[in-house]
Write a structure and sequence with these properties.
By secondary structure, this protein is of the alpha/beta class. The chain has eleven helices and 14 strands. The strands form three sheets. It has an eight-stranded mixed β-sheet with strand order 1-9-8-5-4-2-3-13, with helices on both faces. The chain is globular, with a radius of gyration of 21 Å.
């Protein structure tokens, strides 16, 4: 592929920190670079407590477990998001209440959240910001959850650095999770951050991520090190990945986020010039980071959209479908709340386009020119 969906943007800084970790011979969890990374990203997310773990799925599982999700519980999950949001609920034995999205930012639909609560009384909700765009109904949903004592897991895996009403996303919920696998806003290969402003929750997910072994500090007697207090997991991030993450986060605000926003704005302008619809709208008082850019073919049938996608791939332009609507994945324990099946329509009509940091205006113009040619074929 000449144009990839998303290439990680690496520099000599990441290499320097990886080599430093190798020389230290400490390659496992709790490495020096990992700890520095945790402190730096916590400032960006505006959360006091932050832990680096091995994957986004691990962070979602930890978030649910640390909030006390049980097999008898129900969790609201957007119907249009990564399957990890659904599978993490399944890991807890709980039931997902799949709620459809609104068509503008592809975030949870507030009216449907209210309907889901009335019908199923869920105690937990996942609020996901899709493709780098803050969800339009965020404040309404947050206020509704507070009134009804619903715990919120805010997922900014695709939207690190975006803002809504001047406040950074990731700081609205009880817990934040942010994937940092290789194609995300910062990429380390595989990994995630789980963060919060609530100390008790931080202590809970830190213990769970450390196999529930409470005596791991240098002050604890050595013979207590492998004592386990209950169910736990081996989820902590190894030092080599933490070293790449440190380099990425130190470049994030000065360099990486600016490149992403520049690519996104070019796409919006060029699609408009060619009478094509950008896949999402920017909600009022929000600043997206354009993690992935998309085109929405509102007037084309699904087979035509897929033919365009296949032909783009044949000429070296990588594309991606939208997320599979989660209600179509029948192996999971779930219920579905919808009105107009927006997530299904988005899946049928959207194409995710190359969005790498290093795309130039001429590259984007070429990609859109090819789309126009194929659309009119």
């Amino acid at each position: 592929m000449k144009y990839l969906i998303n290439k990680p943007n690496l520099s000599n800084l990441e290499k320097e920190y990886v080599l430093k970790a190798l020389k230290s011979t400490w390659l496992s969890a709790n490495g020096e670079n990992t700890k520095i990374f945790e402190k730096k990203i916590s400032k960006i997310l505006k959360n006091k407590y932050c832990l680096a773990v091995q994957s986004g799925t691990a962070s979602l599982h930890l978030a649910l477990k640390s909030l006390g999700v049980k097999s008898s519980d129900k969790v609201i999950v957007p119907n249009y998001t990564c399957v990890s949001n659904l599978s993490a609920v399944a890991q807890c034995g709980a039931t997902s209440i799949l709620v459809d999205i609104e068509k503008d930012t592809l975030g949870l639909d507030y009216e449907l959240v209210k309907e889901a609560y009335k019908k199923y009384k869920p105690k937990y909700l996942q609020l996901v910001h899709v493709y780098g765009f803050p969800a339009k109904d965020t404040h309404k949903i947050i206020n509704f959850c507070k009134r009804n004592k619903i715990k919120i897991i805010e997922d900014t895996s695709e939207a690190l650095g975006s803002k809504l009403n001047g406040k950074v996303v990731g700081s609205f919920g009880d817990i934040n999770v942010t994937s940092i696998r290789s194609e995300k806003m910062i990429g380390v290969g595989e990994g995630a951050i789980i963060s919060t402003n609530i100390k008790k929750i931080f202590e809970k997910f830190t213990l769970l991520a450390s196999r529930s072994a409470p005596f791991r500090t240098s002050k604890d007697p050595y013979w207590k090190k492998y004592y386990v207090s209950g169910e736990g997991y081996n989820y902590l991030m190894p030092h080599l990945l933490g070293s790449v993450a440190r380099g990425q986060i130190e470049r994030f605000e000065k360099e990486l986020i600016k490149k992403k926003i520049k690519v996104g704005k070019i796409y919006i302008n060029e699609l408009k010039k060619n009478n094509l619809n950008y896949g999402q709208q920017i909600s009022n008082k929000s600043k997206p980071v354009y993690w992935l850019n998309s085109v929405m073919f509102t007037k084309l049938k699904v087979n035509k959209v897929r033919k365009i996608g296949e032909n783009l791939k044949k000429i070296g332009i990588e594309v991606r479908s939208g997320f599979w609507p989660l209600n179509l994945l029948k192996t999971f324990k779930s219920h579905y709340i919808t009105k107009n099946n927006i997530s299904q329509n988005v899946f049928n009509k959207i194409l995710i386009l190359p969005s790498s940091f290093d795309l130039k205006e001429k590259d984007i113009k070429l990609i859109i020119k090819k789309i126009c040619k194929l659309q009119n074929k």
